[in-house]
Amino acid sequence: MRSLPLTLVARLLPVAVLAVAGVAMTTSGSGDTDDTRPQAADASPTPSAAAPTGGGAGLTPDGGGSGDTSAPPRYARPPAEACTALPAARVKELVPGAKTSGTEMKTSDLTRRSGCSWHALDGFDYRWLDISFDVTGRAPAGSGDPVSGLGDKATVNDKLTSDDDQQVREAVVTVRKDNATIVATYNGGDFESHKAPSSKEIRDGAISAAKNALSALDE
After folding, report:
1. What is the distance between the alpha carbons of residues 134 and 182, in angstroms, rounded to a whole number?
2. Dihedral sign, CA of 16, 17, 20, 21?
3. CB of 209 within 8 A of CB of 186?
4. The pTM is what?
């Protein structure tokens, strides 16, 4: 039986430690959580691949913001159990080998922010997926190519990174709907071929996860 190369073990060690510690994922710009996703620049499998590297903006601390306070926001709170936002079949499709129960994100205020992450190594093929919800109405808007038919406004961008000849591709989808913002981050790479999935595969995966997450807001 073939064993994993030492370089791969070194890359996955931070993920294993975090999983044992029960540390949940975070998204960029969050004031509530620590960034636990493995990063391509760190000796781990992805740029944000863990934590959205630069594109995702998920959770942000409260602050400023004006807006019409005469009417209550449409979404009073995010899904309390964010890991149930994605059907088990979707998790299995996007993150083969991952526990469908996911890892709930740590946040100081679940009435305004919640999230979940999934990650697994299937053979030598690694995938990371996370979603976050923010109903403060102040989360940063996303950037990238427009995605039609998703919320009031949605964007997607993807980035290819390479560390020690290992490629990792990550896509970030940001969806705005009324006062809610959803960020879905999806990335991965093959540690045998050292190649990353295609831009289409990673983008489509992130968009499909965002669609499921958006539906969960109205449930």
Report:
1. 7
2. negative
3. yes
4. 0.70
